[in-house]
Amino acid sequence: MDYVVEMVGIRKEFPGIVANDDITLRLKKGEIHALLGENGAGKSTLMSILFGMYQPDRGTIKVSGKEVRITNPNVASRLGIGMVHQHFKLVEPFTVTENIILGSETRRLGFMLDVRTAAKRVEELSKKYGLNVDPYAKIEDISVGMQQRVEILKMLYRDAEVLIFDEPTAVLTPQEIEDLQNIMKNLVKEGKSIILITHKLKEIKAVADRCTVIRRGKTIGTVDVAETSREEMAEMMVGRSISFKVDKVESKPGEPVLEIQSLTVKNSKKVDALKAFTLDVRAGEIIGIAGVDGNGQSELVETITGLMKAESGSIRLNGQEISGLSVRERNENGIGHIPEDRQKRGLVLDYTLEENIILQVYNKQPYSKHGILQPAVIRKHAEQIIQSFDVRSGTGARSVVRSMSGGNQQKAIIGREVERDPDLLIAVQPTRGLDVGSIEYIHKRLVEQRDKGKAVLLVSLELDEVMNLSDRIAVINNGELVGIVNASETNEQELGLMMAGIHKEEGTS
Ligand SMILES: Nc1ncnc2c1ncn2[C@@H]1O[C@H](COP(=O)(O)OP(=O)(O)OP(=O)(O)O)[C@@H](O)[C@H]1O
């Protein structure tokens, strides 16, 4: 058999947890092979082993039939293995070419850095694989989708034959996702082989040839994607059947909890990011914000939560003007926030899980008394959240958050914010990076908050999620409210037009 990579019987143990337990994965030349598993199942660990960042405790790795020891990423690179990480590793003020040759060309050419020759090669590669990247563009001036292509070019420049993509579409817009899928198909057409880590079954169906499923560190099996349904793959992954639809009864909205009136906000470049934006979110309803990324969603959320200041307009929470309040005061007045960037805004990565869970309440009873923290109470509270939100980590409440898998970090934030029981819960991309089982659970909890009479503001780039979960959908384009529609009366086409800035009446006429 023509395998480019064979990982057989791989085991890796971390304190308190066996992350990989006898895992086998075989990658054929010229295929796209999906790696599917729940949050914390051990996917990133397995790929870190292949990329030389961790050493396996047991098991063998063969590259093109030859057994190898991949002691560090340089060895991986020399063996033709490259990885596009979830968080890009690019130098913003440098050009595309400069980033690509960093750490590679400098050694080869000594002081004589021949950028022009390098740029020419970058251009050729870009053309060959349909990447369409300008070799002289600065990283800070190009979109996230383009930056990802630079990461791909970096691997191709180093002659990588095996490309690992770690949840590559998590940060992309729907159009960019489609483009990336075409790029991946071009890559395998030219003989490259791809391992794709993703939670999105739709994407696996769209591009992958085979899929290996792991659960709790163990291989469950490898299937032919064309012959396996989404439901079957989901069931293999979580061990039970999953519902892709959100079950909810008609909402019974009450009084407005959040009233935004004519809000105008300038972004960091002093351009209007929100223009006279007006929206009410009532008790007992979920309002979804639909829009293409970068149309004012982040500024809207940051202004409500107090991270940004408005130029003009008002924000009222339960009837009280909150524009002048600090972030902490807004929190205490009943705002919960599941932020877009979990690592920057949601967590202190070097704190333990329990410390992160009490970030907003550590100075309150019962978590502290007379200025002294109450460890037993804190532990109990953390353990309850860990249990009810199924947050998996090596040493439970005492785990340092940095060592937890991305999905479990996200579940911890959601648990913390939901358990604070805020009147207004702002959920930004709440299920990004989560497996289908966790998504089902988080959706249920958000609907439960609504049914308890809370107001929920959902901001998501996943149109399916917005349509499934929301009662009303507010569409934003270029900082303006295009319109509000009932979720049960709209469809993808209508929303798509509105997201492009076309008002309902114009769109139908
Ligand atoms: N450096 C580390 N130290 C301690 N534990 C770790 C370390 N890296 C990973 N783990 C643990 O190993 C398990 C597997 O984690 P891994 O990141 O491989 O999961 P994953 O399948 O990639 O999850 P996700 O889909 O959420 O990204 C998790 O329980 C995680 O907490």
From TrEMBL:
GO MF terms, alphabetically ordered: ATP binding
InterPro entries attached to this UniProt entry: AAA+_ATPase, ABC_carbohydrate_import_ATPase, ABC_transporter-like_ATP-bd, ABC_transporter-like_CS, P-loop_NTPase
Keyword ATP-binding appears in the UniProt entry: yes
SMART domains in UniProt: AAA
KW Transmembrane (keyword) present: no
Top-level taxon of origin: Bacteria
Signal peptide: none
Record keywords, A-Z: ATP-binding, Nucleotide-binding
Annotated transmembrane regions: none
Coiled coil: none
Residue ranges of domain ABC transporter in the record: 5-241, 258-503
Listed name of the protein: ATP-binding cassette domain-containing protein
